Amino acid sequence: MSQIIAMEYAEDRLRLVDQRRLPGSYEFFECRTYRDCAFAIKDMVVRGAPAIGAAAAYGAALAASEFSSLGAAEFGPAMRVALDELRRARPTAVNLSWAVDRMACALDKAIAGGTGPGRTLYERLKAEADAILADETARSERLSEHGNALIPDGAAILTHCNTGSLAVPGPGTALGMIKAAHRAGKGVSVYADETRPRLQGARLTAWELDREGVPVTLIADSVAATLMRDGKIGLVVVGADRIAANGDAANKIGTFMLSVLAARYGVPFYVAAPVSTIDFACPSGDAIEIEERTADEVTTIEGVRVAPDGIHVYNPAFDVTPAEYITAIVTERGVLRPPFAEAIAALRATPGAGEGVL
Ligand code: MRU
Question: Which domain CATH number covers 68?
Answer without folding.
Answer: 1.20.120.420
